[in-house]
DNA sequence: TTGCTTAATCGTAATATTGCAATATAACAA
DNA sequence: TTGTTATATTGCAATATTACGATTAAGCAA
């Protein structure tokens, strides 16, 4: 079907899955890593940096923006993107509830 | 196209994306949360717990197993699943390289 | 105005993912 | 053996994702 039955899961489970999907493509990982590395807003050169066509990059940026992980501000003919620090921290917190769950030790039976 | 151009990205970027894809579906999030909550190997009741058909759960379990995040041991007619603690820690470390990147502060221009 | 640059959107093709009915397999019980 | 239970696999339909050429829109320069 291709359509996840999100209605049978909790809001938290769906939220974690949605954030995870954002990281589920290497281009988006590369974009985020580059934004962190530059440590500033970056105007324009993501297409050359990543190596995908301009519409493809634009689409990936749109997804990251819709999730709130990055924000873009218009600067003349170009758009500057950077990490949305507040939302990034919120995302880290959400993901942390899954990733940092304590590892079973005592009753591990495998 | 639906096919990611993984060859133009680093091994790390692809690895992070692959782990993230595992968390990119609420059913798999729910499965992992349940395994952590039970804090032991669990035989059989994942279908009732999650609320999807048995073949669907089996498929999600297969994906998690292929990534090494869980392991299953055969116990008679049933299979017991639990978190693969070693690989879980490795995954956390990989994901951490992206999630815990320092937030830009000084040169933030947006 | 015209032309150039930059980024978003549209349209479309190819591949991936999700979900489940039907079936297969495997272990055990009687 | 036969029947039961539990899980995996197969096959398929529906939807999602990825990628990019073509186009559009918007700002700026001459």
TrEMBL record, chains A, B:
InterPro entries, per the entry: ArsR-like_HTH (IPR011991), HTH_ArsR_DNA-bd_dom (IPR001845), HTH_MetalResp_TranReg (IPR051081), WH-like_DNA-bd_sf (IPR036388), WH_DNA-bd_sf (IPR036390)
SMART domains in the cross-refs: HTH_ARSR
SUPFAM superfamilies registered for this protein in UniProt: Winged helix' DNA-binding domain
CDD domains: HTH_ARSR
Pfam families: HTH_5 (PF01022)
Gene Ontology MF term list: DNA binding; DNA-binding transcription factor activity
Alphabetical UniProt keywords: DNA-binding, Transcription, Transcription regulation
Origin: domain of life: Bacteria
Xref: NCBIfam families: HTH_metalloreg
Alphabetical list of PANTHER family matching this protein: REGULATORY PROTEIN ARSR (PTHR33154:SF15), TRANSCRIPTIONAL REGULATOR, ARSR FAMILY (PTHR33154)
Protein name per the record: Transcriptional regulator, ArsR family
Organism of this sequence: Cellulophaga baltica
